[in-house]
Amino acid sequence: MVYKELFKPFLSSLFDAVMKEAMEDGVITPEESLLLSQIEVDIRAFEKEVAKCIEDEGGITEALRTNCFKNRLISNIRQLALEDGMISKDEEAILCKLEEHFQTNESP
């Protein structure tokens, strides 16, 4: 129940926001596609962590708070974007959208 009420809408809107940003120029580049895939993987991993925490502890631990997830997600995506030695304009737009989403939307 906690997950459905708090995290699911936030995570869905997060992915929707970065997907919309990637589609803004009408083209999803291979680099954007890679970042979007990793964002989706990280979101799914976070969902599993939350579910396990709720099952094991009956609640959500401090380690799984959205701020911790935010830092981990942005760090993972920034590192992936830098694998080729530079962050493209499209990759930077996705990173900015991630940060903006966490700042402007109420997070659990």
Explain how this protein is built.
The structure is a single chain. The protein is mostly helical. It has one domain. It is 76% helix and 0% strand. It has four helices and no strands.
**Helical/strand content category:** mainly alpha
Form type: elongated
Q: Please mark out the parts with pLDDT under 50 across 5 or more consecutive residues, or reply none.
A: none
Order of helices and strands: HHHH
Q: Mean pLDDT, as a whole number?
A: 83
Number of domain modules? 1
Q: For the terminal residues, how far apart are their CA atoms?
A: 13 Å
Tell me the β content. under 5%
| Main beta-sheet annotation | none
Q: What is the radius of gyration computed over CA atoms, rounded to a whole number of angstroms?
A: 14 Å
Tally of separate helices: 4
The number of strands is: 0
Q: Residue share in helices?
A: over 70%
Question: Secondary structure elements and their pairing?
Answer:
Layout: H1 2-23, H2 30-57, H3 66-81, H4 89-104
Helix pairs in contact: 1-2, 1-4, 2-3, 3-4
Features:
108 residues; mainly alpha; elongated; 4 helices
Summarize this structure briefly.
This protein has 108 residues and is an all-alpha fold. It has helices at residues 2-23, 30-57, 66-81, 89-104.
